[in-house]
Amino acid sequence: MRVDKTAKEQGSPLQSPSSSFSLLLGSDLCGSMPCTCTWRNWRQWIRPLAVVIYLVSIVVAVPLCVWELQKLEVGIHTKAWFIAGIFLLLTIPISLWVILQHLVHYTQPELQKPIIRILWMVPIYSLDSWIALKYPSIAIYVDTCRECYEAYVIYNFMGFLTNYLTNRYPNLVLILEAKDQQKHFPPLCCCPPWTMGEVLLFRCKLGVLQYTVVRPFTTIVALVCELLGIYDEGNFSFSNAWTYLVIINNMSQLFAMYCLLLFYKVLKEELSPIQPVGKFLCVKLVVFVSFW
Fold first, then answer.
1. Whole-angstrom Cα distance, residue 240 to residue 94?
2. Cβ neighbours of residue 17 under 8 Å, at least 6 residues apart?
3. Which of 290, 286, 289 is nearest to 119 (CA)?
4. What residue intervals traverse the membrane (predicted)?
5. Cα–Cα distance for residue pair 223/187, rounded to 1 Å
6. Interatomic CA distance for residues 289 and 163, integer angstroms
7. Which residues have CB under 8 Å from 53's CB, separation 6+?
8. What residues contact 23, with CB distance under 8 A and at least 6 apart?
9. Which residues contact 275 (CB under 8 A, 6 or more apart)?
10. CA-atom Rg of the chain in angstroms
11. Which of 7, 37, 181, 285 has its CA 20 to 30 A from that of 199?
12. How much is the pLDDT for 241?
């Protein structure tokens, strides 16, 4: 009774030994391992850190660019490099910010994982253009890396669509079999249509993913031909390797786009919740049209 009275007079409730031990253990953990607690809350500090890094980069990079322009005679090539640097400073932070938003709100890994890989395409393209303008002698090497990533982007875009469909519609093959027969688009309208169901789904995937194999292969061949001096980029002549590789790449690209279009046409209703038209146009314009 005396202990209870003393506790009440002091205004603090009595605590059991187990609760006291729990509080003590919790305080010790937070005090002895602040690094662990901080890393657990990385979602809170990663975005401010990204903003700080971006501002520091601007403060450092812009004076370096201006100094480079003052040091050299300003020509068209240098101006183009400087303009590319400005766009590089704009595109990379925006892309990284969107990527960080996906990482912070990482609630659907099967969909967000390919999205993040696709988003890396923008900074890779920007950095490739900037390096190629500054150091033309190594442009073939950085272009090789970029073109291989192009194929990886197409692979992930198709993976994004198929992951969404398989998760939402486990019986996707049966849904396709119940649909009306889809005919081919021109100029393949004279070809027999692909059987609705597993056959059409497999051939659409194969038609898109063949580009992910052809593109890296032709890129490596182009690199070897450049080292051997028989590539001759930009010159349409059957005596160089560039002409043949352009023909192969174009045929592969056109067929991949055709299969993507056919895939969307057949599954337009099922894909409508994720609004794939805008995503399809972005990938098509950036990856395919940028070739020209």
1. 40
2. none
3. 286
4. 49-69, 81-100, 213-231, 243-264
5. 33
6. 26
7. none
8. 15
9. none
10. 28
11. 285
12. 92
| Residue 162, SS3 per DSSP | helix
Long-range contacts of 166-173 (CB under 8 A, 24+ apart): 167/110, 168/270, 168/273, 169/270, 172/201, 172/270, 173/197, 173/198, 173/201
CB 209 within 8 A of CB 243: no
Structural tokens at position 270:
């099922």
Residue type, 248: I
List, for residues 114-148, the tens digit of each pLDDT value: 999 999 998 998 899 889 888 888 888 898 888 88
At residue 94, does pLDDT exceed 90? no
Distance CA 182, CA 185 (A): 9
- Percentage of the chain surpassing pLDDT 70? 80
Q: In terms of residues, how long is the chain?
A: 292
